[in-house]
Amino acid sequence: MVETHHNAKFRYMRKSGKKNLNKSNSSIQSNFYNTHSADYLSYEKNIPYARYLGKIVLNQLSGNKDQILEVGAGQGRFTFEIASRVGSIYATDVSVEELKILKKKIRLINVNNISVYHYDLLNPVNTFGKETWDHILGFFILHHLPKEKLNDVVYNLQKKLSKNGRMIFIEPNNLYPFHLVEMLITPDMEWEIEKGIYTDYIGCFKKACRKNGMRIISSRKFGFVPPPVINRLPASTHLDYMVEKIPVVREIFCPFILLTAEKI
Fold it and tell me: What is the pLDDT of residues 246-255, one digit of tens each?
């Protein structure tokens, strides 16, 4: 009997923890994204959604916006929207294959202010020399990292951040109950890759920021309308603003959180 998509995923979710115990987090992530070119990560199929989240991040940028580092850029789902409003953006990712796709898109769209680099947040090398960044940002990347490593990640990133520069991340709300449903119904979205959502990674990130000389500017939950609906009906994001005004609903049923920390 052929397994259904949902049953296969459920069995994978039960077994994947044991199967990958001996693999490093970086190798799990890079292996997965080197072999899965997921539609939901593409820029072309998410332009209204990318503009919506890109605008939220851009509104957090202060001071100079000449040199931006994006971590976990992948195929560039959000990179192009940010690049249109800043001087230059260095797009990095742990997956070589995802970066190949991004490079092709840069040539196709003919954008000249995006540079692409292979970079592993968990095993950083001196890729950029003495380069510093006005701001560092990322979309849906922190929950992929082991929470016990977030202090090291923040420490290494803030060393490359200009004074008063900001780290800005949009991440899944770990109290939102329907991320699990999303994993079950979305092709190429797997529990082993996304399970960090349901940890205290948000609290660990904020603690790491404070420990490394940064202050939290924003920790705001937002959103309500699913990305596929936003892509079809961009005006539906107005519903988000209404829902966000209701505290109890916002804390649990808004799927995203905006995290902004500033270097003191």
Answer: 999 999 999 9
